[in-house]
Structure formats: C-alpha cells, structure tokens
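Key result, reporting period 2: structure in, sequence out.
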C-alpha cells in the first residue's frame, strides 16, 4: 500500500480570485435577465460568539459569521440562480487558531435548471453528490434525464479542500449513470478520478441502489471499489419494514476495509499513519432497531449493533430510548445504552435525559449526558456534560439564542463553554420573505 508523505498544501492562491470572478460574472448575468415579477432574493445570516478556555490556557472568544444568499430568476424557459455561502472568523480574545482572522467561500455557483428533463448545469464552487462522489469542487456539474428511465450526471473541476494536511489533487472528474422506476427502484453506477500532475491519486467505482418492492419495504445501499489498491472500500446496506404507521423495523450491514477506505485522505485525522486508525484493519457492523409510537405523544425505541474488528476485537452496542410531548409545548426524553468492547474505553454505560419547554416565542432546554466507564480512564470513571439553552423568536425572521455547557471528561476537568447565536433570515421578490 502506498502511504503518502505528509504535505501541507495551502489553498491555491488563485482560487478565491477565480471564484470571485465567476460570481461577479454570474451576478451580472442574473441582473441582466431578471424581471420584477420573476426574481426573488433569499438569504440568512448566523452570527455566533463562542466562549471557552483554550487547551493551553487563555480565554477564547471567536466571533463567526455565516452568510448564505440565493438570487433566482424564472423569467425564461427554466430557472437561473446564483447561490453563494461563506464564513468568517475574528478572535476577540486570545488567538484560537494560527491567524486571528480567517474566512472561506463554502460554495458559490451559477445554476440553470430547465423545465424539461430535470436538466441542471452548475458552474462555480459547489458540492456534488453522485454515487461514489461526495465532493466540493471548483468546476462544472451537468445532470439530465435521458430516455427510458435513464439519468446521467458528470462533473469536472479542481478539488476544493479546506486546510489539507495532504495533497487533495489538482483535477477531479467523474459521473453517474442510473436507471429508475420511481415507484419500485433506482440503481446507479458511478466512478471518479483525482489527479496530481496527470497521475491518479484516487480512483473509485461503485454501485448504489434503492429498492421498494412493496409498500412497506425499502432497501438502500452502496458498494465502493478502490481501483488503485484493487480492493473493496465499503459495503453498506439497510432494510426497513413498516407493517403499520406506529411500528418500524430496520436492519443494517456494513463492511469497511481500512487500507482501501482511507487510502487517499486530505486530513491527518483520517490518515493510516496517525496511530489511531490501524492499517490492515477490517470492520463488520450488523445491527437492527425497532421504533414504536405507543400514542401520538409517546415514542419508544430499541437498537442493537455488533461491531467486529480484525485487530481491535469485537464490541456490542445496544440500548433503549423513550420520549413524550404535550400540547402545552413540553417535550422530554431519556435513553440508556451499553457499550461492551474489548478495551476500557469501549466498556461503559451511557445515560441521557433532556427536557424542553416552549413559552410562546421563548423556549428553554436542559440536556444531561453521562458516561460511566467500567474502569478508570485517565484517572476518572465517570464523565458527564450538562447543557442549558434558551432562545427567543423576536419575529419569524429574527431569533436570538444562547447556551452554556459544563463538561467533565476523561481529558478535561471542569470545562465551561458558552455560545450566543443571532439568526436572521431575509428576502424579497416573488417568494422572498
């Protein structure tokens, strides 16, 4: 197996400029085509002030702003829109990361959707989800229905990877071909390839499916193959059975080969060389769950999962949960789960209880989470967190909320965290708020 050398790759210097140029061009296109009756603008802003103590000391007060904006026009034979979202951070207290200020464009693309054949063309920074491809890229995406139930999608561009520890590549392309009968099934085959200077660093192919053979049964799943390691990365399948509205049964089966699954990553947290993810490991997970609504306001559930690792051993995870609500705005729940593994960190009881109450435009929530280990972890057998949250809706568009968490864990003593969030949605035009 090829293990990549660690390499710190900053974001390509021309990327933001290119994206900005694309968005400016897109905005001019939309402004040139819009009509008063067919244009709408929608957006939302999330301003978040976090408060916590740093791992090495210091008082951290990072202030974040997340802004999403959509401008669309439906005057033509289809819909054309500009979608853009980004975030920024400034440290009001001690420095929380390498730089006191930081920001990024999460997505920004021009989209055209035809009124026929579900034809879609996107250009710019975007998320693409097509079979084996779940990628953020700067490039083009094309999708359309074909004849006789077939659909096809293709994409090409530059991988948009945030703060990578390893090279994410300079070119990515792929696609998916599927056949569907909307009432009964959809089956797709897909592939992608990522290159650096013309050499492939990632090649994956896969099959995905959804089956609905009868009214109460659904089956979903996927299998993914790594052409570079010549091994299966993952098989994951889930079946559900709903014999009545109040009862739902499900079963799942998953198999992961670590050497093939984690072969090409961009962060050291998922690297086979970090000492946490074991090279040569293989994991099987088989499980199931049952959910039952005893009344309109009472829900009960139980689940069981068995994990089998070739190197780390096996583990069982099982438990029960229940919740209820009232017409007065009160809701509460509790759960118990047990993890039976082969190491001290994987042998514990897990408890949770929560309650929330609405008072008109205001709401209050308390959430308690406790983990009781069989043995000592870093000198501590019991860890817990207690969270309190409150929110107030000043209008349908403006909400202010705050929460505070007290955490006592195996790694941190008496950690206190706080957060204040201001959410504002805006819009105007045909359907803008």
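The corresponding designed sequence is given below.
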């Amino acid at each position: 197996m090829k293990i990549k050398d660690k390499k710190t790759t900053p974001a390509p210097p021309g990327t933001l400029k290119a994206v900005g140029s694309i968005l400016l061009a897109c905005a001019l296109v939309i402004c040139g085509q819009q009509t008063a009756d067919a244009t709408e603008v929608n957006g939302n802003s999330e301003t978040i002030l976090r408060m916590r103590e740093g791992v090495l000391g210091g008082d951290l007060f990072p202030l974040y702003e997340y802004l999403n904006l959509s401008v669309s026009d439906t005057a033509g034979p289809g819909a054309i829109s500009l979608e853009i979202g980004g975030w920024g951070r400034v440290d009001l207290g001690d420095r929380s990361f390498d730089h006191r200020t930081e920001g990024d464009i999460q997505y920004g693309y021009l989209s055209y959707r035809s009124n026929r054949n579900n034809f879609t063309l996107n250009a710019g920074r975007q998320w693409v989800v097509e079979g084996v491809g779940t990628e953020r890229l700067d490039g083009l995406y094309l999708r359309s229905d074909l004849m006789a139930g077939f659909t096809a999608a293709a994409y090409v561009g530059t991988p948009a990877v945030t703060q990578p520890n390893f090279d994410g590549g300079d070119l990515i392309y792929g696609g998916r071909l599927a056949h569907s009968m909307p009432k009964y099934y959809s089956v797709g085959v897909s592939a992608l390839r990522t290159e650096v200077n013309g050499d492939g660093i990632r090649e994956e192919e896969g099959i995905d499916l959804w089956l609905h053979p009868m009214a109460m049964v659904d089956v979903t799943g996927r299998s993914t193959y790594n052409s570079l390691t010549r091994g299966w990365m993952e098989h994951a399948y889930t079946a559900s059975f709903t014999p009545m509205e109040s009862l739902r049964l499900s079963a799942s089966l998953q198999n992961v080969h670590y050497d093939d699954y984690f072969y090409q990553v961009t962060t050291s947290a998922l690297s086979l060389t970090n000492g946490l993810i074991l090279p040569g490991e293989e994991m099987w997970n088989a499980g199931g769950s049952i959910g039952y609504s005893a009344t309109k306001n009472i829900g009960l559930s139980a689940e069981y999962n068995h994990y089998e690792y070739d190197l780390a051993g096996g583990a069982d995870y099982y438990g029960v949960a229940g919740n209820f609500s009232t017409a007065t705005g009160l809701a509460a729940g509790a759960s118990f789960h047990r993890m039976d593994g082969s190491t001290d960190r994987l042998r514990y009881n897990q408890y949770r209880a929560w309650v929330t109450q609405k008072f008109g435009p205001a709401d209050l929530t308390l959430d308690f989470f406790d983990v009781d280990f069989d043995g000592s972890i870093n000198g501590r057998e019991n860890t817990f967190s207690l969270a309190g949250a409150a929110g107030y809706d000043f209008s349908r568009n403006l909400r202010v909320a705050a929460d505070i968490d007290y955490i006592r864990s195996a790694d941190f003593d008496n950690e206190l965290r706080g957060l204040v969030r201001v959410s504002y949605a805006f819009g105007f035009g045909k359907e803008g708020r």
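The CA atoms of residues 247 and 380 lie 40 Å apart. The two ends are 54 Å apart (CA to CA). This case is discussed further under Risks and Mitigation.
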